[in-house]
Write a structure and sequence with these properties.
Spore Coat Polysaccharide Biosynthesis Protein SpsA, Chain A; two-stranded antiparallel ribbon; binds cytidine-5'-triphosphate; seven-stranded mixed sheet; alpha/beta; binds magnesium ion
Length: about 230
């Protein structure tokens, strides 16, 4: 009997309200460089053939999704989003569990990061395919970092120890699901998947990614993301 190597899947939380962006259209549907943000994001994921399928978590009242060209792609399924990002991810993992195996890899990637490159995606998958836990794309910080109390510097932090966490974050389906469920049971709000695994005592790996894989958060990020998409 031969055992299949673990498959790769993607989960895209796209159920946020975009409060910091403050636009009438949710930021994942704003058009930049000729297409809605979420269309860019999903095209980037689908361009990598070994990703077998993508589950997108959508806000229950989302009227924009059916208008997206990529919504008709047979590799995409949807799930109802929840009140926090982690709830949206868990809901998408529940849908994926009907299709994927417990030890398959799941790459969780923010809808609001349309500038992800296929080369970073492949680099993450290739680097961590045999890792016991999985891990994330991240970038080292370049500024000098200060610890501050009451608007005064109390220390300079060793920069070599600090990285900025990006997405995708790649973990095994069953382990990720269990970690997110446990975090929720403990009443802890985790803002990324790695934090949930860390709470279980795991040490996720770090893979250096490109700094242009930004999360569109505030209005000024639109011009920057447009520039990056046009440059790439
Ligand atoms: N997200 C989600 N479900 C939520 C909250 C966020 O699926 N309940 C998604 C967002 O759609 C986004 C990603 O998680 O793609 C990262 O979250 P963030 O940048 O914080 O987006 P929003 O929560 O929409 O923005 P804000 O925090 O400014 O309201
Ligand atoms: Mg948010």
């Amino acid at each position: 009997m031969t055992t299949l190597p673990p498959g790769f899947w993607a989960v895209v939380p796209a159920a946020g309200a975009g409060k910091r962006m403050g636009s009438p259209i949710p930021k994942q549907y704003l058009e930049i460089a000729g297409k809605p943000v979420l269309q860019h994001t999903l095209e980037r994921l689908l361009s990598v053939e070994r990703i077998a399928g993508v589950v997108v978590a959508l806000s229950p009242g989302d009227d924009y999704w059916p208008g997206l060209a990529v919504s008709a792609d047979p590799r995409i399924r949807t799930a109802p989003g929840g009140s926090e990002r982690a709830d949206s991810v868990l809901s998408a993992l529940d849908v994926l569990a009907g299709q994927a195996r417990a030890d398959d890899w799941v790459l969780v990637h923010d809808a609001a990061r349309p500038c992800l490159t296929a080369s970073d995606l492949n680099h993450l998958m290739d680097t961590l395919a045999r890792h016991p836990v999985g891990g994330i794309l991240a970038v080292p910080v370049s500024d000098t970092l200060k610890r501050v109390e009451s608007r005064a510097i109390v220390a300079t932090v060793d920069r070599s120890l600090i990285w900025r966490a990006l997405t995708p974050q790649m973990f095994r389906l069953a382990a990720l699901r269990q970690a997110l469920v446990r975090a929720r049971e403990q009443g802890l709000v985790v803002t990324d998947e790695a934090s949930a695994l860390e709470l279980q005592g795991a040490c996720p790996g770090i893979v250096e990614g490109r700094p242009d894989n930004i999360k569109i958060t505030r209005p000024e990020d639109i011009a920057l993301a447009t520039f990056y998409l046009e440059q790439q």
